[in-house]
Automatic annotation (TrEMBL):
Listed EC numbers: 3.1.3.75
Residue sites binding Mg(2+) per the record: 8, 10, 179
CDD domains linked: HAD_Pase
Designated name of the protein: Phosphoethanolamine/phosphocholine phosphatase
Keyword annotations: Hydrolase, Magnesium, Metal-binding, Mineral balance
Name of encoding gene: Phospho1
GO molecular function: metal ion binding; phosphatase activity
Organism: Glareola pratincola (Collared pratincole)
Enzyme class name: hydrolase
Catalytic residue list: 8 (nucleophile), 10 (proton donor)
Length: 242
């Protein structure tokens, strides 16, 4: 493959935040206030562990979660982008780095028919324990001050590129498609050959604009904002013609 394409999941591949979506499987499709109040900035993973424990107590089962994940809509234009990538799969190595969870991502991608596009998925470990409760863990620990305690996407991407280099796979370019603040962190490491595709009007987009204002040229990758992922497909198509 000539190119590495990195995707985020929530509000990038899918048009919702899947952690919010699963509340649809809770009684009354809502969480009690005392659980919602335990959320702390930077500790979302721990908060979700409490949410899932509550849902387990309420008798929400694996099948209920699966149904929700399978029905979350893809973002606008995402099927077009995935079809384009399927046709050109020999050129792109595709990975997914997400602060959601493995079970949910696999359910969604299999239901949409695009699971096989991804060489590797990096996300928080999740599964079902003996009681049938949905459990979630942190992905790793890191020293980055800008990222949530359980995941730094920059660390994951940097390690992945180093590992592929050791296997003698070097990419001409890296493309990064995301939306959140935690997608901004890895995109700062991109070079001038690479392209960042932030979703228009979302935190990653705003942060690239702010960085450009404060330190012109510090963000090295080309920035191509998108509202529909079909725009990402068109941009990649143009590059392939060159």
């Amino acid at each position: 493959p000539r190119f590495l394409l990195v995707f985020d999941f929530d509000e990038t591949i899918i048009n919702e935040n899947s952690d919010d979506s699963i509340v649809r499987a809770a009684p009354g499709q809502a969480l009690p206030e005392q659980i919602r109040q335990t959320f702390r900035e930077g500790f979302y993973n721990e908060y979700m562990q409490r949410v899932l424990a509550y849902m387990g107590d309420q008798g929400v089962k694996m099948g209920d979660f699966k149904t929700v994940y399978e029905n979350i809509p893809l973002s606008p234009g995402m099927p077009d982008l995935f079809q384009f990538l399927s046709k050109n799969h020999e050129l792109f190595e595709i990975i997914l780095i997400s602060d959601a969870n493995m079970f949910g991502i696999e359910c969604s991608l299999r239901a949409a028919g695009f699971y096989s596009l991804f060489r590797k998925i990096f996300s928080n470990p999740s599964g079902f324990d003996k009681r049938g409760y949905f459990t979630l863990g942190p992905y790793h620990s890191h020293k980055c001050l800008d990222c949530p305690a359980n995941m730094c996407k920059r660390k994951i991407l940097t390690e992945y590129l180093a590992e592929r280099a050791q296997e003698e796979v070097e990419f001409e370019r890296v493309f990064y498609v995301g939306d959140g603040a935690n997608d901004f962190c890895p995109s700062v490491t991109l070079t001038s050959a690479d392209v960042a595709f932030p979703r228009k009007g979302y935190p990653m987009h705003r942060m690239t604009q702010e960085m450009e204002k404060k330190q012109p040229g510090a963000f090295r990758a080309a920035v191509v904002p998108w509202e529909s992922a079909a725009e990402v497909a068109r941009h990649l198509q143009e590059l392939l013609k060159k």
